[in-house]
Amino acid sequence: MSASLSYLERSKLHSNPTAKAFLELMERKKSNLSVAADLNKKAALIELADKVGPYICLLKTHIDVVEDFDQDLVDQLTALAKKHDFMIFEDRKFADIGNTVKLQYGSGIYKIASWSDITNAHMVPGEGIVQGLREVGLPLNRAMLLLAEMSSAGTLAKGDYTVKTVEVARKYKDFVVGFIAMERYADKEGDDFIYMTPGVGMDQTSDGMGQQWKHPREVVFDRGCDVIIVGRGIYGGGRDAAKEAKRYQEAGWNAYVERISK
Ligand code: 5IU
């Protein structure tokens, strides 16, 4: 049901402040594009964020690949998020017991909870992982996604694993606001999860290392997902990142408009 509602209508269904603000932002900016900035130099990451900033709703980071990480990088990224009106998603894929992920999320060098609006986790350890992250994230008004499926060939996250992941998300809706998923699952009464999908590309279908790229229309219109996550399709192979981001923004948004108008 919620696949046919606008992002703005759906923002009213959420109690989590980040989910609400994120859906409003998508509508305001007419963007369901997230750029996956897998770059290992601070200056390159900042440059990319500034270039694609006008076209994205969400910047997805892997902060632990940045060789010259420092607090100034975080300060610059959060300033760019303000300047261009986007949110930040550290794709940390937590995977340990509740007590350990609490430490990994809130402390260490990266202090992810202090700057990342959204993060994510595997369900392998059981629901204690959500309890741990929620304890740190909820007081800061953060939100998280569960990895219900992955985009890569041979992923073990499928079938019953995915079904159980959705059940846990329903139990902790105040903090788990959506999924990394390849399709939208059956909505139950009261569900409104945000579906984010990596493995999106318009020019190639595979990277030779298991990644499988789908067209934005297939992801948003056919499969009912909400956010397209695009990395190398935008910045890889010497591409003009701003130009490509604009192209993906339009493709993603058109597919969404087509979906809610059908
Ligand atoms: N990513 C995936 N697949 C997944 C999950 C995360 O590709 O199932 I969970 C990440 C990895 C990379 C980005 O940061 O999304 C995709 O980048 P490319 O568009 O360059 O493949």
UniProtKB/TrEMBL annotation:
Q: Which residues catalyse the reaction? A: D91, K93, D96
Q: Which domain of life is it from?
A: Eukaryota
Q: Does the keyword Metal-binding apply?
A: no
* E.C. number: 4.1.1.23
Q: Name one GO biological process term.
A: 'de novo' pyrimidine nucleobase biosynthetic process
Q: Which gene encodes it?
A: URA3
Q: Which InterPro entries match?
A: Aldolase_TIM, OMPdecase, OMPdecase_AS, OMPdeCOase_dom, RibuloseP-bd_barrel
Full protein name: Orotidine 5'-phosphate decarboxylase
Q: Which UniProt keywords apply?
A: Decarboxylase, Lyase, Pyrimidine biosynthesis
Q: What class of enzyme is it?
A: lyase
Q: Where does substrate bind?
A: D38, K60, S151, Q211, G231, R232
One term of GO molecular function: orotidine-5'-phosphate decarboxylase activity
Its pathway, per UniProt, is:
Pyrimidine metabolism; UMP biosynthesis via de novo pathway; UMP from orotate: step 2/2
* Family, per entry: Belongs to the OMP decarboxylase family.
Q: Which NCBIfam families match?
A: pyrF
Please verify whether the record's keywords include Lyase. yes
Reaction equations catalysed: orotidine 5'-phosphate + H(+) = UMP + CO2
Boundaries of every Orotidine 5'-phosphate decarboxylase domain copy? 32-247
